[in-house]
């Protein structure tokens, strides 16, 4: 899959990877906590998925961070 040509999607991808690492959990654990598939989480981190607002909300809740954390500067 090719990366999505969007600065916002790429910011989300980068911040997701950083925040998941900060939480010290695997993609699989994040998938379990968020109710999303591990391959979906991986695609989001690689910037090949364009997550819906609902998915962003699920991921934010699973990481216990506000959704806006995914869209700011690192």
Query: What are the secondary-structure elements, in order, as H or E?
Result: HHHH
Helical residue percent band: 55-70%
Mean pLDDT: 94
Low-confidence residue ranges: none
Helix/strand structural class: mainly alpha
Specify the number of helices.
4
End-to-end Cα distance? 25 Å
Give the overall form.
globular
* Rounded radius of gyration (Å): 11 Å
Q: Describe it for me?
A:
This protein starts with 6 loop residues before the first helix and ends in an 11-residue tail after the last helix. The protein is 61% helix and 0% strand. It has four helices and no strands. Helix 2 crosses helix 3 and helix 2 packs across helix 4. With 74 residues, the protein is mostly helical. The radius of gyration is 11 Å and the shape is globular.
Layout of SSEs?
Blueprint: H1 7-23, H2 27-34, H3 38-46, H4 53-63
Helix pairs in contact: 2-3, 2-4
């Amino acid at each position: 899959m090719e990366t999505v040509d969007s600065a916002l999607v790429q910011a989300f991808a980068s911040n997701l990877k950083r925040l998941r690492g900060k939480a010290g959990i695997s993609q699989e654990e994040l998938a379990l906590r968020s109710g999303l598939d591990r391959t979906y989480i991986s695609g989001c981190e690689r910037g090949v998925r364009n997550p819906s607002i609902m998915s962003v909300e699920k991921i934010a809740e699973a990481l216990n961070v506000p959704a806006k954390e995914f869209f700011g500067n690192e």
